[in-house]
Specification:
The complex is a heterodimer of chains A (1033) and B (430).
Chain A lengths: L3 E2 L2 H4 L3 H8 L10 H4 L9 H19 L7 E2 L15 E9 L2 E10 L2 E7 L12 H10 L9 E2 L7 E2 L2 H14 L3 E6 L5 H14 L3 E5 L6 H11 L4 E4 L6 E5 L10 H10 L12 E6 L4 H5 L2 E4 L2 H15 L8 H12 L4 E5 L4 H13 L7 E7 L6 H12 L3 E7 L3 H4 L5 H5 L3 E4 L13 E2 L10 E6 L2 E5 L12 H8 L6 H12 L10 H11 L1 E3 L13 H13 L5 E6 L12 H4 L8 E2 L4 E3 L1 H6 L13 E8 L2 E9 L7 E6 L22 E3 L2 E3 L1 E3 L1 E9 L2 E2 L22 E3 H6 L12 H8 L15 E6 L8 H9 L7 H5 L8 E7 L6 E7 L18 E3 L5 E3 L9 H5 L6 E2 L12 H6 L6 H4 L4 H4 L14 E2 L5 H14 L11 H5 L5 E5 L6 H6 L4 E2 L11 E4 L1 E3 L18
Parallel strand pairs in A: 8-9, 8-16, 11-12, 11-14, 12-13, 16-17, 17-18, 22-27, 24-26, 33-44, 34-43
Antiparallel strand pairs in A: 1-35, 3-4, 4-5, 6-7, 6-18, 10-15, 19-20, 20-21, 22-30, 23-32, 25-26, 25-31, 28-29, 34-41, 35-36, 37-38, 39-40, 42-43
Helix pairs in contact in A: 5-25, 7-17, 8-13, 11-12, 11-13, 11-20, 13-20
Chain B lengths: L2 H8 L2 H6 L1 H19 L3 H14 L18 H8 L7 H10 L2 H6 L2 H9 L12 H12 L26 H33 L14 H25 L16 H7 L4 H4 L14 H8 L11 H10 L17 E2 L12 H7 L4 H5 L16 H10 L14 H8 L22
Helix pairs in contact in B: 4-9, 5-6, 10-11, 14-15
Classes of the chains: A alpha/beta (1033), B mainly alpha (430).
């Protein structure tokens, strides 16, 4: 048994696991039988070998002797002043898509957006990004985008029409409609679009209604705030100011409200340095594991219904002064009281009563004004669950005659049944820019332009305004929604002019920085953000709190034994992102599953329920079960995740999109119908029943891929891959939990073995070093997707992931430790360690991988002949082999792959499309079939930064060279820089007492280092006194 | 009749006798011309021409109307405009050239008319001295006194490029030597064999097959053949995809010899991004129009090729507006690198201060551009081994403390691109 394990397979050292861990590839290599079979069998002989040799030589000669193609070089007729071919331009803009807000910089090359970066001075998102933000650029080049307005008569094929025809026909029909005209949308946070919608509504008179519905709903919280504060809004949370955080089922680092902002604030309280360090204390009470729970100092595992009673317990202790049913929760309450005024309680429940109690608790603790502020409200969630009920009722009783759908997909993500049938009764128009379930049944689709093609504004927090600016000309014949409404309201002029006028009228006067509107506007667009003085306030009243206690207690008792919790997945959200291949292939941080949703159960339940079909982990088949909630059933594979509450099933929302362009994006099952009505709102926990079926399913789980196995690595006293300590221990001795510092026994043992036959690589100039703080890494996956975008990493599809052939250069290893029912978890981003003494380098027969004088392990694709020796010899397992030509680097086009029955999915082959290829970074080679690749430390960015300094004739500044993963990280856990520069942050981090190298005892001398995770708790540590092999140290 | 043609007739002695009368007449006219232009100071005229080219030629031509009016006779026109406020017309012209606002503000009528005659205002040339203007006017009034100019040195650089170090000759000699050696050795051994056989009293073959049928010779030839063919095959293989000397026909007969050679236009005037970014940039057509709005006729192809520019950019020469549909020029790319090679012009031109000619050859003499260098990896690497970086002058290299110390300690004499890692894979392949 090991102290740290990636999954049950490793913990129990299952036969199948050890077998694949010892091998480089999880399956046998697909080599022709004539080669593998011994000559003595008579099936193959020397002649066959010669035949093959002759054939391949001839083929190579024929291929190589083709004439060189004539390449054209077509310059601009008029070169735009700001475009220098080959140099990227960055434009400040804002992403507001699928409920995700991020202030960003858009990187464009020759007028083509290829990547987004966090805007470092952003007031809300604070320079970080999320995986969804990073992936959003891919949707610009999505083949599923509508290319022009479409008329869908329902009977025949949808027809393409012009905007003139569309405007005319839709205008006439809307005029003729007898019932109400409803605009059904998710939250609109563009002030100018809201105003345009309002004025358009006015032209229709009383007939118009705007219904706002968020599929991932915060309606209960908004309703509660309306009762408690008289404002149907969400206040600002400052996690940086909270000393004690108690979160009841709120995944605030992953999905809850504003995770990018919260991650940055939260991380700022978690980076310890030097003696007398302080940290926030974070207690998570939850049923289904989340990354937030895994980062918590103390994680209290309860059943979904007990998440409700935990809030009652907290209320009883803190507000009522009574006792709590759950002793652990009572202790948490005491800690909150002790930190009153700088503590925070949050709950992920959509039950208005639960949120009323949370408001009462925070008010009693005096957290309003210090940690929670009403001076600026968070506007990103304004939907009401009543909207969807109203819509369906109105359509069914005929009071709604027409529905306009904007940024919403009610057919897919409504908890109310019969939306599709109801919509068919009315005249429907969708503004979707990509095919979705709702747009495909609407009478007209008037495609909105992609946000990267449009002007716009966003007010995510009241008084903090962001601008959206187009970074590419419209790719298709689409029209921004605002422009459509302006046109329909009879306004002349473009939306751009409207936007400027709107800002002049509404915001210019409120600021004093700029004199003259154009100076103000130009700077607003340039900076992408304007901060106006905060003015909001709200006073608490206890309305409804007392009644809420009994309501929640009654509710909590009603769920029965087996309960389900529906959660928002980090990757696909409410389903809006489910058609994004980058996000589908991003392993879920908690379960490490890609391309699917599934039923999460505890390991105990997994074994007891007979779901463990593969006890030796050889078949890698997963049993499926039918989950029934409120009479609705879905059949999904069952996955065991340590830390899940007993008798609890977790399922991710947002999967099961049926109307996607490619069939394999239609993965998983849609469980939105399982949200259950609680008062006016829909909540995500319910009574459930689970029945095992006789079916099995294949799941693409990356949990056991690329294992670091130390069995044959030599050395006797192998250390742990990840290191942890507690704050008290750290303050007592900084080296505790790490033992890196000199004079330390452990470190000396490593130094003793630092004897080498190889000469030491000199680094006369730069010595690039990356230090990753395990304490603040939340495992969210933003870095993984950022790496995909920056380095042209292909999507390989579910089938290939099952074969452990995912191409991600950066994976996030997740290590459990402790008991199965409530383990501690450490996330460890694992990428090429750029070893100064790299095992991969000396086994390459053609020297395709070798060492640079800047400390980097270089990979020359054009030299690689694909022996894969390097991958086999890499102890960190970070090298990836191109089994196919995933992005058409070479002559192997999509047709070749299909003609030759290569098992590549449509999504993968779509990467051969010219449209999709527009997202490729022109500075990075698109790798061909048969070559090895791996993290390059974003060498193109380093070379670019060096060149800028050379051009200016100056020394490079610290922080000038960055990697994509580093800039993507919301919690800033990655430090990167030149270790030779004694004033650099990288030098400081490298010499920090928390810093260690993974398996550095085998003398790889990695240039990627990690920092010990520190937890702020006094409980018994789960990792104490055991070495890697579980022996008492 | 120009000096040029007069000289031409003078150096063709046969003609002198064949067309006597005509030549006398021509000679007379020429003489008068010579007399007229004999007063022109050649040095001043040259100075004036170069000043005109660098300051005025973008908008003015002595003989043709462009953005600005045709200038020949300008002195006479201003002089004829008369005296004002105690200054002659010519004096006002000098004032105008330095800053056109001055005579306008002073209220000189002719200047005011001139200012209103064109939509675009003239630039201000405050730094020009009276002597400069005098020289320029000398050129403007006598634009056709040609000084014969050949394609001379470009705007810098001696154009020496590192050649791919060829070891072919050595290798061939070596192989030849081996062949001879093998032949001699075979001869010796067979002789010895024979001798041994004779000594032992064994029967010695007397009637021998011709040597090409003897196994030893066949083996030797086969071996030699394999070595030679193998070498040729590898050599041919490595040259696949290389296009040294590639000189495709371009859609416009643009002459670097004329622009960079004769007119000595800076390379980076047109290839303006060479010191900024990855691409040197084939100039967008609007760059051509900076001059060719004015220069409407070329020395070789007349208006034909320049008309193609107008067509590309949508310029209507009659109305002097960009009123037509632009059609981008589809140049044929000459210098092609494979996808896996990253080459950055700024790195070489700006940071490395490498001359264009080092890689592109004597571009200023090329009527049509061809690929001068092999653009092979060996060629790149060779240059990286030999070329020094701007180690002392560029502060970027202060990061390389060790080498600075080594230079001080006289351990090394220079820092080449290779020294700082310029021959490593990931400097060009990523």
């Amino acid at each position: 048994m090991k102290t740290y394990w990636k999954g049950i397979e490793e913990k129990e050292q299952l036969e199948g696991y050890t077998a694949i861990s010892e091998k480089e590839f999880s399956e046998e290599l697909p080599v022709l039988s004539s080669i593998t079979e011994p000559i003595t069998t008579g099936k193959s002989n020397r002649k066959d070998f010669l035949k093959m040799l002759g054939f391949s030589t001839t083929a190579a000669v024929i291929a190589a002797s083709c004439e060189m193609p004539i390449r054209k070089s077509i310059p601009y007729v008029w070169r735009p002043e700001e475009i220098t071919p080959g140099i990227a331009n960055f434009y400040a803009s804002t992403m507001w898509q699928g409920g995700e807000y991020n202030a960003i910089l858009v990187k464009t090359r020759e007028g083509r957006p290829i990547k987004v970066e966090g805007k470092k001075d952003a007031r809300i998102s604070k320079g970080g990004t999320s995986a969804r933000t990073q992936a959003s650029v891919l949707s610009l080049y999505d083949g599923a985008r509508y290319k022009n307005p479409v008329r869908n008569s329902g009977t025949s094929k949808p027809e393409n029409i012009t905007w003139e025809v569309a405007d005319k026909e839709v205008g006439e029909k809307l005029k003729a409609v007898s019932g109400k005209v409803v605009l059904f949308s998710s939250t609109v946070i563009s002030p100018s679009l809201s105003a345009i919608i309002k004025s358009y509504g006015n032209t229709l008179g009383g007939k118009f209604e705007h219904l706002v519905y968020d599929a991932i709903s915060y309606s209960g919280m908004l309703d509660a705030n309306e009762k408690s504060f008289g404002k149907r809004a969400i206040p600002s949370y400052n996690f940086a100011a909270a000393k004690v955080i108690v979160s009841v089922g709120a995944d605030f680092l992953g999905t809850w409200l504003s995770p990018t902002e919260f991650s940055a604030d939260y991380a700022s309280t978690r980076k310890v340095k030097g003696a007398n360090s302080t940290m926030s204390r974070h207690i998570q009470i939850e049923s289904v594991p989340t990354i937030t729970g895994f980062k918590a100092d103390t994680r209290i595992v309860v059943k979904p219904s007990e998440e409700l009673s935990a809030v009652v317990d907290l209320y009883n202790v803190i507000v009522g002064g009574a006792s709590a049913a759950n002793a652990k929760v009572a202790k948490a309450a005491e800690e909150l009281i002790a930190a009153a005024g700088s503590s925070l309680v949050v709950s992920g429940s959509n039950d208005v009563n639960v949120q009323l109690l949370v408001n009462a608790i925070n008010n009693k603790l005096g957290n309003y004004g210090s940690v929670i502020s009403w001076s600026r409200t968070l506007n990103t969630k304004q939907g009401s669950d009543k909207s969807i009920t109203k819509l369906v009722a109105g359509l069914n009783d005929g009071s709604i005659g027409a529905v306009l759908v904007h940024d919403a997909n009610p057919v897919f993500n409504s908890p109310v049944a019969g939306v599709s049938e109801a919509l068919k009764k009315a005249f429907t128009v969708s503004f979707a820019n990509r095919v979705d379930e709702t747009s495909s049944i609407c009478n007209y689709v008037l495609p909105d332009s992609h946000w990267l093609e449009s002007w716009g504004d966003v007010e995510a927090k009241s008084g903090i305004l962001n601008t959206i600016q187009p970074t590419i000309s419209k790719l298709f014949d689409t029209r921004p929604l605002a422009e459509t409404f302006l046109k329909w309201s009879g306004a002349t002029g473009s939306y751009y002019e409207y936007l400027q006028n709107f800002w002049q009228t509404n915001y210019y006067g409120k600021q004093s920085t700029y004199n003259g509107f154009w100076a103000f506007w130009d700077n607003a667009v340039h900076d992408g953000e304007v901060e106006l003085p905060a003015s909001g306030s709200a006073t608490y009243n206890t309305a409804g709190a007392a009644e809420a206690v009994s309501a929640v207690s009654t509710s909590a008792a009603s769920f029965g034994d087996l309960q389900v919790k529906l959660y928002e997945s980090i990757a696909v959200g409410d389903g809006y992102w489910a058609d994004n291949p980058w996000l589908q292939e991003l392993p879920d941080p908690v379960s490490k599953v890609t391309w699917d949703n599934y039923l999460i159960v505890s390991p105990k339940m997994y074994n007891a329920g007979g779901y463990n079909l593969d006890p030796h982990f050889k078949e890698k088949k997963y049993a499926t079960a039918t989950l029934t909630v409120n009479g609705k059933s879905v059949e999904l594979p069952v996955v065991a995740v340590p830390g899940t509450a007993e008798n609890t099933v977790g399922v991710a929302l947002g999967y099961g999109r049926t109307a996607t362009e490619y069939s394999e994006l239609n993965v998983g099952k849609n469980v939105f119908s399982m949200l259950s009505a609680t008062g006016d709102n829909f909540t995500n926990i319910a009574k459930a029943s689970l029945a095992k079926t006789s079916n099995t399913a294949l799941l693409a789980i990356t949990q056991t891929h690329f294992n670091i196995t130390l069995k044959d690595l030599g050395g006797t006293k192998t250390r742990k891959l990840v290191k942890e300590t507690t704050l008290a221990e750290y303050n007592a001795s900084e080296a505790k939990g790490n033992k890196y510092t000199a004079g330390n026994e452990d470190r000396e043992h490593i130094m003793e073995e630092m004897v080498t036959l190889y000469y030491e690589h000199q680094k006369p100039g730069h010595h690039w070093t990356m230090v990753i703080d395990l304490g603040s890494c939340t495992g969210c996956g933003a870095c993984v997707v950022a790496c995909n975008a920056e380095n042209n990493i292909p999507v390989v599809g579910k089938d290939q992931v099952i074969r452990a052939r995912e191409m991600h250069w950066l994976r996030i290893d997740r290590y459990f430790t402790g008991e199965m029912d409530n383990p501690d978890v450490v996330f460890q981003p694992m990428l090429c360690q750029h070893c100064d003494n790299a095992p991969c380098e000396n086994v390459c027969p053609v020297a395709a991988t070798n060492h640079s004088n800047e400390g980097m392990n270089q990979m020359a694709y054009n030299r690689c002949i694909g022996t894969r020796y390097c991958a086999n010899n890499c102890p960190y397992k970070v090298r990836r082999f191109n089994w196919y030509d995933y992005q058409q680097a070479d002559a192997f086009d999509a047709k070749w792959h299909t003609d030759n029955n290569m098992p590549l999915s449509e999504t993968t082959l779509a990467q051969h499309e010219p449209l999709t290829r527009m997202v490729l970074n022109p500075d990075v080679t698109v790798r061909s079939r048969g070559v090895m690749e791996k993290c390059s430390f974003c060498v193109q960015r380093l070379q670019g930064a060096k060149l800028e300094a050379k051009k200016d004739g100056r020394k490079m500044a610290d922080g000038e060279a960055t990697t994509a993963c580093q800039t993507a990280c919301a919690s800033g856990c990655i430090t990167f820089g030149d270790r030779n520069d004694k004033n650099s942050k990288a030098y400081e981090a490298f010499n920090d007492s928390r810093t260690f190298g993974v398996i550095e005892e085998i003398h790889t001398m990695p240039n990627v280092l990690y920092q010990t995770q520190v937890r702020n708790r006094t409980e018994k540590k789960k990792y104490e006194n055991l070495d890697y092999f579980g022996q008492q140290a | 009749m120009t000096i040029q043609s007069r000289m031409n007739s003078a150096i063709q002695p046969n003609h002198r006798f064949s067309v006597s009368l005509q030549s006398i007449f021509v000679a007379l006219i020429s003489f008068s011309c010579l007399f007229a232009s004999a007063e022109v100071d050649k040095a001043k005229w040259n100075e004036g021409k170069s000043l005109f080219k660098s300051n005025c030629a973008a908008c003015h031509n002595p003989k043709v109307d462009g953005t600005g009016p045709a200038l020949q006779g300008v002195t006479a026109r201003w002089e004829a405009a008369g005296e004002y406020k105690g200054k002659t017309g010519t004096q006002w012209l000098y004032t105008w050239i330095k800053n056109y606002n001055d005579p306008v503000n002073a209220g000189y009528k002719y200047a005011m008319d001139m200012a209103n005659s064109r939509p675009s205002a003239m630039n201000i040339f405050a730094t020009l001295k009276d002597a400069d203007i005098e020289n320029m006017l000398l050129y403007i009034e006598n634009p056709d006194i040609g000084t014969p100019t050949g394609p001379t040195g470009p705007t810098g650089g001696d154009g020496s490029a590192p050649k791919e170090s060829g070891s072919n000759t050595t290798l061939i000699i070596f192989v030849f030597f081996l062949v001879v050696l093998v032949a001699i050795l075979i001869g010796i051994t067979s002789k010895l064999d024979k001798l041994v056989a004779e000594k032992n009293g064994e029967p010695v073959e007397t009637a021998k097959a011709p040597f090409w049928r003897r196994p030893k010779w066949i083996t030797a030839f086969a071996l030699i053949g394999i070595v030679l063919l193998g070498y040729a095959g590898v050599d041919w293989g490595t040259h696949l995809g290389r296009q040294q000397g590639y000189q495709p026909t371009q859609p416009i007969k643009y002459s670097h010899a004329l622009h960079a050679g004769t007119h000595k236009i800076e390379c980076q005037y047109c290839h303006s991004t060479a010191n900024k970014g990855k691409h040197a940039n084939i100039p967008s057509v609007n760059t051509c129009m900076n001059c060719h709005k004015n220069v409407q006729k070329g020395p070789k192809y007349g208006t034909e090729e320049i008309a193609k520019i107008y067509e590309a950019v949508g310029w209507d020469a009659k109305t002097q507006t960009y009123s037509k549909e632009p059609k981008p020029v589809e140049w044929v790319r000459i210098h092609n690198l494979p996808d896996h090679v990253y080459f950055n012009h700024a790195q070489h031109v700006n940071a490395g201060k490498v001359q264009c000619q080092t890689c592109h050859g004597p571009i200023e003499t090329m009527e049509e551009v061809y690929q001068y260098a092999p653009l092979s990896m060996g060629w790149c690497i060779n240059c990286h081994r030999q070329t020094e970086v701007q180690f002392a002058s560029n502060n970027y290299y202060t990061a390389y403390e060790k080498f600075h110390q080594d230079i001080k300690d006289k351990k090394i004499s220079k820092v080449t691109v290779e020294t700082i890692g310029g021959t490593e894979c990931q400097r060009c392949h990523y």
